[in-house]
């Protein structure tokens, strides 16, 4: 011990800066550093400087604060080899070696640079620390310091350099560093360190293989991970349940739940003991991919394998079904979960209540909230916020306030989210005084509003005409250090328009443009949407064009709305211009916008432009759906371009798109016109009838094969076609079939049949149908009366001729 103390004293002597700081009254205070109290007396006779060092060491009391080492550079202590070696030795000698990690953190995170290499430090330490366990401890502390500083590559380089000098980390530290590198998601580095560990003579064990499998899964190397499982067995290292769980979790987390399911079934077959956690990982992955039937089957398999289903597995299923709005099945699973005695939690309750609200069932959400509360289940602040929002949406502001007070009574302090919900509820109901009062209470209770809160209140002021108050609120935001952003202004503009304050909205937008603030997509979109909200599609279009010429574009949702409104107002060329400007600015319209524009051109009978945009949609890699095909087919049929309609029908089927009832109805019209064109000048009426009946019979058979049932419109189209072909009895049979299925004929159905009777000269039966219409409360329009009148006229002419 004496010799080590003497060497330690000499180490300080060789560093004059340390001596200088120790011997002077400087800001560098050693009162915060744990040093050795009892150095041997032999050290005191080495030299005057050594004696001074030892006296200082004697005078210092151990402490737990070692921050002084980390900012010693600013206090005049040179961060050199001797300094760090001395500090490490002092910590070991004083029994405070567990404080090495923060010391090494200062070394690793140093921004000043070091004039020595880490191997040199450990070479020096090896001369003072004669026990290999201490050096090993120091090296482990260094590795942990690299981890704290999040420097995996630097840690790797340091370990390699130290190993070349004969300093090797412990297996435990290697595992720690290996796992740390996996978390860095640098697969190349992980593999390099894996090989390095083998060069240290560390044989891969199950733990290291498991870590490597996790890294490979994170890097998307699933085949390599699977091969590694085989390599484990070749090395007689049997994968355990943790290894398999890691692999399965990696697969499911990366959208490979089907493969995860295969692996799970295989390890069950091999007899590996599987717990509910592994099942839960696969069920969770399947639910994220909306493969609910497979997930539920796996839940049943758990029971068959005598693995009790847990709350997590049910939670995944319930959350998944709620995400796709299948509330009925989610509730059934919840009841099943409770009936099996599996404890539920507030997460599951939150999913269910949120699903109720998402589906517009706020009243039902509150009923279930009360049921959950009465059951004694603990409900957290998030669940209360859902119930609070439901009350506000229903206008039950008194109940909402009562619920917020109930929260306080249960020790839950409402936060800014709860207050914002209340403010939004009052704004929705036009109670701006109460909304402002809640806002003031927030401030009194030191609950700091965020940007969402301000935006909600500002939007409420604007919607209800309190423009001055909205501007004052924005000024107040600035005073509180929260600058209104584009979202704030867009909310104000949008709500001014919703409140029909277009003049104020335009003034605000113009003012923002003048100040150079309005150069934001969200603001442009808000103003365009504002015009559309007020039915000013022309103004919206003009603003859109002006912005595009300036190099700005509104968002895709606004573009879609603008196209839709222009098409509604028959400004189809304007909608087409919007499309062209979007494409010029490299923004592709969505499928909904294409459908609207093509439909509008079809309504106009402009099939050239309709076909042009249809082809453009296909060329851009979008897939036309059955609605779009039907729209285009109907457009061609209306202008008697029958062949084009037939070609589209064939093309649709070749793409694997199944026709729906509307498509079949359009095709009936196509077949009727096709027959009429083919036999226009032919006297062979029987052949014409047979051709049409063959076509519509095939279509009906195809519909039945596809499990499609004709609706009223489809039946009417069939009846009309048969009547026009002179197949009155077939038309009557379909009419009766339609009635037998519980479908109610409309005015057009009766008119088609009445027209058929009139063509056959059976005016009395036509008149009986009209009386039946009147008795059933169906309005008889001028078309029906005109057909009946022409039928009577034709009947009288026939009587005269006789």
UniProtKB/TrEMBL annotation:
The keyword Repeat applies. The keyword Repeat applies. PPR repeats lie at residues 170-204, 205-239, 240-274, 275-309, 310-344, 380-414, 415-449, 450-484, 485-519, 555-589, 590-624, 625-659, 711-745, 746-780. It comes from the Eukaryota. InterPro entries: PPR_rpt, TPR-like_helical_dom_sf. Keywords: Repeat. Belongs to the PPR family. P subfamily. This is Pentatricopeptide repeat-containing protein. It comes from Dioscorea zingiberensis.
């Amino acid at each position: 011990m004496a010799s080590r103390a003497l060497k330690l004293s000499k180490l300080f002597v060789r560093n004059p800066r340390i001596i200088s700081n120790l011997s002077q009254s400087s800001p560098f205070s050693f009162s915060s550093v744990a040093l050795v109290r009892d150095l041997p007396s032999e050290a005191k006779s080495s030299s005057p400087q050594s004696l001074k060092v030892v006296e200082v060491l004697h005078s210092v009391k151990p402490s737990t604060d070692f921050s002084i080492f980390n900012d010693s550079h600013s206090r005049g202590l040179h961060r050199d080899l001797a300094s760090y070696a001395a500090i490490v030795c002092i910590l070991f000698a004083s029994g405070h070696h567990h404080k090495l990690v923060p010391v090494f953190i200062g070394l690793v995170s140093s921004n000043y640079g070091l004039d020595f290499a880490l191997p040199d430090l450990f070479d020096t330490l090896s001369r003072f620390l004669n026990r290999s366990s201490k050096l090993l401890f120091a090296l482990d502390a260094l590795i942990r310091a690299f981890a704290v500083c999040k420097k995996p590559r630097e840690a790797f380089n340091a370990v390699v350099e130290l190993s070349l000098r004969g300093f090797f980390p412990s297996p435990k530290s290697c595992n720690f560093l290996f796992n740390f590198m996996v978390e860095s998601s640098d697969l190349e580095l992980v593999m390099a360190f894996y090989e390095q560990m083998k060069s240290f003579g560390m044989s891969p064990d199950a733990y290291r293989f498991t870590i490597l499998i996790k890294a490979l899964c994170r890097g998307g190397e699933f085949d390599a991970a699977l091969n590694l499982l085989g390599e484990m067995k070749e090395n007689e290292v049997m994968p355990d349940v943790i290894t398999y769980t890691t692999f399965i979790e990696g697969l499911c987390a990366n959208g490979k739940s089907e493969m995860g399911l295969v692996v799970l079934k295989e390890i069950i077959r091999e007899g590996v003991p599987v717990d509910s956690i592994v099942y839960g990982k696969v069920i969770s992955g399947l639910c994220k991919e909306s493969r609910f039937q497979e997930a539920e089957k796996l839940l049943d398999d758990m029971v068959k394998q005598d693995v009790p289903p847990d709350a997590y597995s049910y939670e995944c299923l319930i959350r998944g079904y709620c995400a796709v709005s299948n509330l009925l099945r989610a509730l059934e699973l919840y009841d099943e979960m409770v009936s099996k005695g599996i404890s539920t939690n507030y997460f599951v309750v939150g999913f269910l209540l949120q699903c109720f609200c998402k589906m517009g069932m706020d009243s039902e959400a509150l009923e279930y909230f009360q049921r959950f509360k009465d059951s004694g289940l603990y409900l957290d602040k998030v669940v209360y916020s859902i119930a609070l929002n439901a009350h506000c949406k229903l206008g039950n502001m008194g109940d909402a306030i009562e619920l917020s007070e109930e929260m306080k009574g249960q020790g839950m302090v409402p936060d800014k989210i709860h207050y914002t919900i209340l403010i939004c509820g009052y704004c929705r109901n036009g109670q701006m005084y109460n909304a402002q009062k809640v806002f003031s209470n927030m401030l009194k209770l030191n609950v700091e509003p965020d940007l969402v809160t301000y935006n909600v209140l500002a939007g409420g002021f604007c919607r209800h005409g309190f423009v001055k108050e909205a501007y004052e609120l924005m000024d107040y935001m600035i005073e509180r250090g929260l600058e209104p952003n584009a979202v704030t202004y867009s909310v104000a503009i949008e709500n001014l328009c919703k409140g029909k304050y277009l003049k104020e909205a335009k003034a605000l937008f113009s003012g923002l443009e003048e100040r150079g603030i309005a150069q934001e997509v969200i603001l442009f979109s808000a103003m365009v949407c504002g015009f559309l909200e007020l039915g000013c599609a022309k103004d919206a279009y003009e603003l859109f064009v002006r912005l595009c010429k300036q190099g700005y574009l509104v968002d895709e949702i606004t573009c879609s709305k603008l196209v839709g409104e222009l098409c509604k107002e028959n400004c189809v060329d304007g909608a087409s211009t919007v499309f062209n400007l979007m494409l010029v600015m490299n923004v592709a319209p969505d499928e909904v916008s294409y459908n609207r524009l093509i439909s509008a051109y079809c309504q106009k009978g402009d099939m050239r432009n309709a076909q042009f945009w249809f082809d453009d949609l296909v060329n851009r890699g979008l897939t036309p759906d059955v609605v779009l095909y039907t729209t285009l087919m109907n457009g061609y049929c209306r202008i008697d371009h029958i062949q084009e309609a037939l070609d589209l029908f064939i093309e649709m089927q070749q793409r694997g798109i199944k026709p729906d009832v509307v498509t079949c109805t359009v095709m009936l019209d196509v077949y009727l016109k096709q027959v009429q064109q083919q036999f226009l000048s032919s006297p062979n009426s029987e052949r014409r009838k047979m051709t049409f009946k063959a076509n519509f019979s095939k279509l009906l058979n195809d519909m039945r094969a596809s499990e499609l049932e004709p609706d009223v419109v489809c039946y009417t189209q069939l009846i009309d076609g048969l009547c026009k072909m002179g197949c009155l009895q077939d038309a009557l049979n379909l009419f009766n079939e339609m009635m037998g299925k519980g479908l109610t004929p409309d005015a057009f159905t009766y008119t088609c049949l009445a027209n058929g009777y009139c063509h056959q000269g059976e005016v009395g039966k036509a008149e009986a149908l009209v009386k039946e219409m009147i008795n059933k409360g169906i309005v008889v329009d001028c078309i029906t009366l005109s057909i009946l009148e022409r039928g009577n006229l034709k009947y009288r002419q026939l009587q005269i001729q006789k």
